[in-house]
């Protein structure tokens, strides 16, 4: 953890393994078996609540990876989930999954975004700060 990162911005850990099973099923429907490699991987992600509501007054969410890159909920239900397909994750892909499906893949663990995102230079620290600025201010900060 970087000592310069603010603490207290908590998200829920989403199982990349469970997301990969779902993504593989989607790819199997979208593509012929010959056109897509059967190896699909997804990293564990952090589901965070954003400090803004959608047009219906519901909470908006985002998924954040361990580099602080994230995918914000774009409509009422769906979030883009990044995938790696093929040997060594050579092909990048993505599937749109509903917030409810993503929540069904929660591990039960929570993590502070400051700890979840790797420490490797200012770019990752900046990514953390950008997401924290969009989350609800924690009570103890």
How would you describe this structure to a colleague?
The chain has 141 residues and is of the alpha+beta class. The protein has one domain (10-134). The protein has helices at 16-30, 99-103, 113-116, 122-134, and strands at residues 10-14, 40-41, 45-53, 59-64, 70-72, 78-85, 91-98, 106-112. Strands 5-4-3-1-8 form a five-stranded antiparallel β-sheet. Strands 2-6-7 form a three-stranded antiparallel β-sheet. A hairpin with a 5-residue loop joins strand 6 (78-85) and strand 7 (91-98). The radius of gyration is 16 Å and the shape is globular. The mean pLDDT is 86.
Mind sketching the topology for me?
Blueprint: E1 10-14, H1 16-30, E2 40-41, E3 45-53, E4 59-64, E5 70-72, E6 78-85, E7 91-98, H2 99-103, E8 106-112, H3 113-116, H4 122-134
Antiparallel strand pairs: 1-3, 1-8, 2-6, 3-4, 4-5, 6-7
């Amino acid at each position: 953890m970087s000592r310069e990162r603010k603490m207290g911005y908590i998200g829920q850990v989403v199982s990349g393994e469970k997301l990969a099973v779902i993504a593989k099923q989607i790819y199997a429907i979208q593509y012929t078996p010959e056109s897509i490699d059967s190896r699909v991987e997804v990293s564990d992600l952090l589901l965070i609540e954003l400090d803004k509501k959608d047009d219906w007054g519901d909470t908006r969410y985002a998924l954040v990876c361990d580099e602080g890159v994230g995918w914000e909920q774009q409509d009422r239900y769906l979030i883009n989930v990044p995938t790696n397909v093929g040997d060594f994750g050579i092909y990048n892909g993505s599937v749109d999954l509903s917030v409810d499906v993503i929540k069904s893949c929660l591990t039960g663990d929570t993590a502070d975004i400051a700890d979840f995102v790797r420490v490797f230079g200012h770019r990752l620290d900046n990514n953390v700060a950008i997401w924290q600025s969009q989350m609800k201010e924690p009570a103890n900060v």
